[in-house]
Amino acid sequence: xxxxxxxxxxxxxxxxxxxxxxxxxxxxxxxxxxxxxxxxxxxxxxxxxxxxxxxxxxxxxxxxxxxxxxxxxxxxxxxxxx
Length: 82
Hints:
Layout: H1 2-10, E1 12-25, E2 28-40, H2 67-81
Antiparallel strand pairs: 1-2
C-alpha cells in the first residue's frame, strides 16, 4: 500500500522505502514511511499536479493540527535512525 501511494503521489519507480513509526490522531492510527528515491517517471493521472523538493517545511498543511506533529516526530526519528 505504501509503495502504491508513493508512486501515485510522486511518480517514484526506483526507491528504497522503510517504515518509520506509527502515530495516533483523531482516534485513528497511521504509519509514517521514509523513502530514498532514485528514479521518477511522469506523474500518474491523479489529484497531484506537480512535485517539488524543499529544504525547509514552510507551506500550509492539509491537516494543520496533525502534520506539524508528524513532521516534528519524523525529523526526531530521522536524526536518530537514518
